[in-house]
Amino acid sequence: MNEVVGFLALVIPAMVPFVLAAQGTILSGRAGVFNVSQEGVMVLGASVGFLASFTLGGNTIGLLVAAAAGGLVGLILALATTALRMDQFVVGLALYFATLGLASLLYRVIVGVTLEPPLIELLETYPIPLLSDIPIVGEVLFDQDLVVYFAFALSFGLWWFMYRTSAGLRFRSVGENPKAADSLGVNVFRTRVWATVAGSALVAMGGAYLPMVYTGTFTEGMVAGRGWLVIALAFLGGWRPHYVVAGAAFFAGMDVLALRAQVADIAIPHQFVMMLPYVATLIVMIFAFRWARQPGFLGNNYDRESRLSG
Amino acid sequence: MSEVAAPPSTTTARVNRAAWYAGSVLAAFLVGGIVIVLLGLNPVVAFESVITTSFSTGFGFVETLHKWVPIVLCAYAFTIPLASGKFNIGAEGQLLVGATAGVALGITGSDLPPLLLVPAVLIAGVLGGAVWSGIAAFLMVRFGVNEILSTVLLNFVAFELIDYVASYVWPDRGAGHPATIPVGENAMLPGFGEPAVHAGVLITLLLSVAIGLAMRSTAAGFELRATGANPRAASVHGIRTSRLTAGGMLVGGAVAGLGGAIEVAGVHGNMLEGMQSNFLILGIIVGLMARGNAVAVPFVAFGIAVLEVGASAMQRSAQVPIEVVLIVEALILLFLMLSDVLRSKLGSRS
Amino acid sequence: MTEAPRLQMTGIVKTFGPVRALNSVDFEVAPREVHGLLGGNGAGKTTLMNVLYGLYRADAGTIELDGAPVTVASPGDAIAARIGMVHQTFLQIEPYTVLENIVLGTKAARGERFDGPKARAEITELSERFGLEVDLDAVVEDLPVGVRQRVEILKALYRRSRVLILDEPTTNLAPQEVDALFASIRAMVDEDLSVILITHKIRETLGVCDRMTVMREGQRVATVTRAEATAESLAATMIGETPVTDPTDGEEVAAAVVATGLASADEVAAADAGAVSTAPVAVRVTGLRVDNDQRVEQLHGLDLELREGEVLGIAGVSGNGQVELAEAVSGVRPITGGSVRLGDRELAGAATSAWLGAGVVYVPEDRHRDGILPTSSITENLLLGSQRSTRVKSRGLIDWKAARQRAVDTISDFSIRANGPGALAGDLSGGNIQRVILARAFAHHPRFLVLHNPTRGLDLKSTEFVYEQVDAATREGACVLLLSEDLDEVITLSDRVAALYSGRLIGEWTRGQTDHYAIGRAMIGLEAQDV
Amino acid sequence: SCGAIEEGDHEVSIAGVFSGPTTDADYNALGAKALLDMESDEVKVAYSESVEVPDVERVIEEYVSDGYDIVWTHGSQFYAATAKVAARHPDVTFIGEFDGKPKDQPENVWVIDRNFHTVFYPLGTLAAHLSQTGRVAYLGGLSLPFSYSEVHALEQAIADSGEDVQLSRVWTGDFNDTVRAQQAAAQLMSDGNDIVITSLNLGVVGAFQAVKQEDVGDAWITVKYTDKSANGPEHYAASVIYDFSEPLQKIVDQIQAGERSGYFALTFGDGTSVDVGDEVPAEAKAAVDDAVQRIESGELTVELDQSEVK
Ligand SMILES: Nc1ncnc2c1ncn2[C@@H]1O[C@H](COP(=O)(O)OP(=O)(O)OP(=O)(O)O)[C@@H](O)[C@H]1O
Ligand SMILES: Nc1ncnc2c1ncn2[C@@H]1O[C@H](COP(=O)(O)OP(=O)(O)OP(=O)(O)O)[C@@H](O)[C@H]1O
Ligand SMILES: [Mg+2]
Ligand SMILES: [Mg+2]
Q1: Ranges for the ABC transporter domain (chain C) (predicted)?
Q2: Ligand 1: does its nearest atom lie under 6 Å from the Cβ of A190?
Q3: Which residue in B292, B289, B314, B284 sits closest to B303, CA to CA?
Q4: Radius of gyration of chain C (CA)
Q5: Nearest residue in A to C57, CA atom
Q6: Which whole number is the average pLDDT over A93-109?
Q7: Domain A2-119+142-288 has CATH 1.10.3470
Q8: Alpha helices, DSSP H only, in C197-319?
Q9: If you ran DSSP here, which 8-state letter would residue D105 be given?
Q10: Is D102 on the interface with A (CB under 8 A)?
Q11: Closest Cα to residue C14, out of C219, C171, C172?
């Protein structure tokens, strides 16, 4: 029992950056904008989130400033790919570089060379009354920090929005067939812009969560490829909010399991254990063809007057 | 992700485009210069070293050529599958597995004569890379697994794999870093001149010509592009699209794998963690800047190699922090794209 | 006229780069009028309507509705001004249901949940009133084109349009369905709508339109009332000349005559009656079994035979196995049973390229999806399929210079309206795309030509052109399998005609013995007469 | 510190090559500090940071061609390349780092032996005396020979202490992956270990956060390179602290005196020291002091065993 709780207690926070960043990714993806700047934006989020918490005091501020920074990057991506119709992939990669550089530069300017890393308080947990008293489930799910609750509420909200509201119906149509959506009066431009801005803000929050829950400080490599995995996760989850949560649980679970196996002194070279999450994902994808569908117009720019788009 | 077709190219159009591109690079450096000034550093010294490092010394030029090789090869690893509409984001994994295969042969076969061993090492690299992209190709054709996903994941698997090889199979105990012991002398590519340029540069040059020709003027190259443009129409007209896309992935992986083997046999003499550097991203950028045009790839790659070599010089000579280099690279890319937009806007007005 | 016109477009100009698609066009539609919009491929009909619908922004010109000027900068504005449009190529969200496609973006969907009972009831009522039956919960991508057409019309009606644009709506419909559509149009006009109908079929135009406007090369050339118009005058205006036909044989007469809609096809065909071919059998299909995309068997052991130089016409409403038949006998779709022999060569099971090599050439129905590489040049599109042939190569490599020259020649031979051989195929108008496809098909010197709806959406001149090409091919000994929903076309071109219904061939009529109504009945399954 | 070398400006010019950012408050910050301490009217310094192993040869060559007199590569991963370049440029003097004594050391290369195994011995002593559960853990980054030598030194110390303590070890695969270090440390704790001996760079910040989740006195952490007690003073057991300023100064002095090759082993009093936390019981602290003394006096030698840990 304790084993299970201990395991899940590690999995839940490990899921959060994946969930936030992947929901951000599918939000813009469902509007047709294929963002590939996640790795950089998460690092920027971690840096800016940490720096804001450190200088202004308070993690909430840090998260908000990180979200704003991410949103700004999203705005650049959105405008470049809608108003200017620049290639989404190239702009995304350029922003990956830029945000990666900016993250370190800001840290260098504000903190500089020191032998003592500056620290911020970690996020506090807020047990939900009654619910947190449920054995196992309560301990694991309802005794967490606020960002955990936010991530899950957001996922449910996104699912509700996309599949249960008419605004969601309009929203998804933009990523499937913007010309058809446009011909019915749906504002493709505006939809793409807000989805990309909001999506990128979520990605940055996913990054900002890392220093706040794990380390209390920013380090350059702390995102460690999660941004790239988030793209894989969006495909794995078929660009749907509910499947993405399941996919994030799978990623985080395999990751924690891999370390667990090492701690338990399993006599396999640790490199093979560390491969596990990636190999397992590939195997799962073999059976994922049923749900792994992507938005029909993902990655393409829409030009109303061109016959080639739409 | 769209419009990878090469724009029409008359001579004036080409000159015009080159001027625009030069302008965007300048603009990027201008903005970068402002950042450098704000940091209280000297942008003139910084940029001088970017431009001069590759050309002022023989060593700088050789280093630039040596950096050019993996960038070109990774760019092909990206653009060849892209022609058929597939995104190979796995060049670094393929490069590493190619390097592993190359190093395996270079170590175990160190007694063989160079005439045998060097080609064997390169071929091993090619096969290693092809196997790695082949996994993605198989999953794509057989099970419909998205290739972006599989190639990204296989990169991570490759990182662990080479860490294992460098830690357990042929570890170099004194390296202070995960690295294998050196390959035999006989496995090393011959060099020319002083400082020596390894033969991989020549191989890459020849390969570039071959790939450019193949993509442009062979039936297979045409079929690859046709598949990318409209897979249904291509198959209606007798093209075996899944075989072709899989083939494109395999060739892409093979080229990246060759890059790995050349890095082993030409530059490092062993396999070490981190040898993939940022060739994947640079390769993708080169491929995209060249609009997938195989002929343009080596030229664009040379520009990027000069920049890469010059970028670290900027840090050395003017203490410009490394992250400013990333920002300048991003700006170059953005401004290049922007120049395309502006150029076509102005063009359509006149 | 005492009433203000329902729609008044004045001085509309639209350019695409170097192409001047609309050159100061005036266009007027009266209230409760069915207004035909005619013109050759690329004349600018769709462009004019896209301007009206806000999809294209005009360079100059004004629009008035019921006497009041309106600005239409986006489709949203058009919908607000109660303009509805059924597009030439469907604009539908394929993974959505019919209901979702219809309510998408409307006010009704905004206030309540999108699958609410109110919207459902309203749409059901509309579809009954106008005879447009659909299953609201079906997913659009699974539907046959005819039904998807109805979805498009319902979309416009649901938005309470007062002006409804139908851009070539009949191309996908069987004769009976066309009749039903025209009945719906009449019902709409009775309810105060004005309808703009774009079509290439003069007979239809004369049948349903009150007035018609003819366009040519981006300009309006005439507007006439039905009373003033005759088929000949319309055709002449469209083409810009009186058609000079110098008939050398019966088929050409037939082609020209049908194209201009002058006479009943039956009469023409009768002129050359009874000529049963005795040439050797070129193609023999036996026991052909084929599945559709959903792996449901569509053809259950079909047999047919074609002799050299013969045209076998297959009439039928789409969705009865046409696509499966056409793709199976051209080697594109795998065959689950039976045999297809070309001469004495068995082709079943061979790769598509082998069929192509043997001389089987296929002109698919869906040009955009199956026919062209939209982002590639005309040169490259013309090369598609022959890239491995030695004809196009020099020293083992594709000779692009020669290919470009061939493209230049083809553009002039086939009168393709394009900006040179480097123009992207996707930028061409529908008719010109078809010319590219046909040019490519004929360049293969086919032994067996499979044509599926080859003139759908083509103007008179182009249609005539296709007929001439088919004729030339048969004279060289090729045999042709013609699948078409255009009964006139089938009867005119074919030596023998059969109807395809539910994956079975029903009846057989040889040239001169055809009977429009008998075939029509067979097409919709009223004549259960197996061969 | 700008500009290439101009003749006659300075007596000596020194270039430093660092593997990570100098803002890391860790190994590279130590290096940067040592180098910048040297800077004066007579001594010109410059450095490159975040240099990857595959690139280091080029970076060194560039400093050589810029005319630097001394090139110092900070980190044993750079030794092979340093020796290789040194052989090509007999006029320039190089300072490389190594774990142990290299076999063939060029005439113009100084070697700094980081001597990790020796300084880890007292940490083993400390852990043996401090542990209440009888289970202690080593948390490393990459499984390299030097980290094996640390593990063997710990084993030796534990055996010498006579306590019944079991040592387990985990490698996160990255010295700087803070998040994974946090997860691994958390798992080690939940597995019953009460002392975590880290051999990490930035990753240690994450490990601190995990250890801090436990009650004070029930869990301890030791760190390497810099004093990171501020991360969690109540759980902080000890650091092995490194200082490169003095050694570098000494070596440069000798080079200027004409001694162009040599071997400098960092050891207690000469570049390293052990700092024991205030909360550590006196008995354990005494044991550590004793171990340090015995090493300093030469009474005790810690065996250098770089063989793979099974
Ligand atoms: N985990 C879940 N939680 C809640 N509802 C679920 C869940 N899994 C599936 N569903 C149901 O499935 C529906 C959407 O899932 P599905 O994967 O079928 O999407 P879809 O409509 O096919 O998406 P699209 O067509 O946009 O790709 C939801 O409306 C919901 O009723
Ligand atoms: N989006 C576009 N981009 C470039 N050129 C266009 C575009 N739309 C139309 N054109 C050009 O404008 C002209 C008019 O085309 P349009 O589609 O209006 O013709 P049409 O009369 O509808 O022909 P069809 O009967 O073939 O449908 C053609 O030359 C066409 O190539
Ligand atoms: Mg049209
Ligand atoms: Mg679905």
Answers
A1: 7-242, 283-527
A2: no
A3: B289
A4: 24
A5: A305
A6: 92
A7: yes
A8: 202-208, 231-239, 250-259, 265-270
A9: -
A10: no
A11: C219
